[in-house]
Design a protein that fits this description.
The chain has 486 residues and is α/β, with parallel strands linked by helices. The protein has 15 helices and 11 strands. The protein has an 11-stranded mixed β-sheet, sandwiched between helices. Strand 10 (438-445) and strand 11 form a beta hairpin. Bound molecules: glutamine.
Amino acid sequence: MESHYLTVHELEELLRAGETTSLEITEAMFRRIDAVEERVHSYINLMKERALEAAEASDRRRRDDAALGPLDGVPIALKDLLCTTGTPTTCGSRFLERFVPPYDATAVAKLRAAGAVILGKTNMDEFAMGSSTETSYFGVTRNPWDLERVPGGSSGGSASAVAAGECAASLGSDTGGSIRQPAAFCGIVGLKPTYGRVSRYGLVAFASSLDQIGPLARDVEDCAILLSVIAGHDERDSTSFPAPVPDYRDCVGRSIKGWTVGIPREYFIEGIDPAVTAAVDRAVSVMKDLGAECREISLPHTRYGIAAYYVIAPAEASSNLARYDGIRYGFRSPGERELLDLYRNTRAAAFGSEVKRRIMIGTYALSSGYYEAYYKKASQIRTLMKRDFDKAFASCDVILAPTTPTPPFKLGEKTDDPLQMYLSDVFAAPANLAGIPGISLPCGFTADGLPLGVQLLAGYFEEGKLIQAAAALEKALFTEQRRPAL
Ligand code: GLN
């Protein structure tokens, strides 16, 4: 049976009804991976043997007990910065090519405990720095909708794997848009939770005050299912929030009649592709048809977002990446006799140029005499942006905006121009700076058949509202089922 494009909840139903087994689904998934992976390259490492064992174990559980959770036996992929025992966690870097973590990330442990079948680790920009998955040491990932285009980044492999039918759903991480932007580029749904909603234990750190783990999936309901499993307090991450986790799935299928939707004027700027504006306009009119009031709002500090993000994220990265010294784990430059040579040559050899650029920018921004001018200023902007959102959510249930300023761009198009690359996060990074949750969902195609995304944002820990609005919008927007012509 061809199950590779089914949603998590469709698989759940088939499994529950006894119409298929996890082993059947998992084997079909690996056949699909064999068929398309050479063209798409979503994965860095597969975990086939362990996946098949997990599928068989799920089938055994099901024979003994019919009441299993929705993820039991369902094949899931993980971005390769989530620690997994038994398989390398490379972060897309030569540095960690052979690094096998001694423990599972909390989100991974929760997936395993829920019975999910982990298929493998997906490709990503090196240390999650990028918007196109082109900075991976393991080669580029291609957009399943057009193999000459990027899948977005940095969770490009997690997004392309879902879009190409190489997993039922996946986990990614979002520091400045890395779940939402690739979801938009690959025509799927991606959710960045509130900072603190999901434990970051075992997530290799990029920018610790911005990083969040979240799901990428074929629809909003699947994102809700995954979020309910991975969310929650964890004593090993002191920034994880000690509040009970709702069953987010309950929010799917509810009306948003009477809701207020804010449309931020600052998100419709010069340079935005007309196809994006047209698709977002359509989403706005659909929201109105659903009985929501759409009202223009202002988030006046939006235009400082990218500048603040590209000071704060590299600053934190430069500090987090200091641990890669060639001594404790990861790559080590061979034959060095002096400590400084060891550091210098190890880091020179094993970091790619984008990572080095971030380390230099970040070190500069934190250095004595410049800290006040850069890092502190950026932190102040961050506070102003938070206040913008607080003010907006005092009168709006959700905010609707484009996810990205353009459709997926060509491979190589922005690799020589980091600023252009950074600008693809212009609508995504503000949510990370403020810490609020956001979701991107498909909202149509360009004339050339490239997917477009629309983004919804909500207040702190309002993932339920986000899912409720996104599910309603998804249902009303849906016109025809398209698949990439792979
Ligand atoms: N593209 C952004 C960057 O390069 C965001 C990355 C992310 O969210 N991990 O930093």
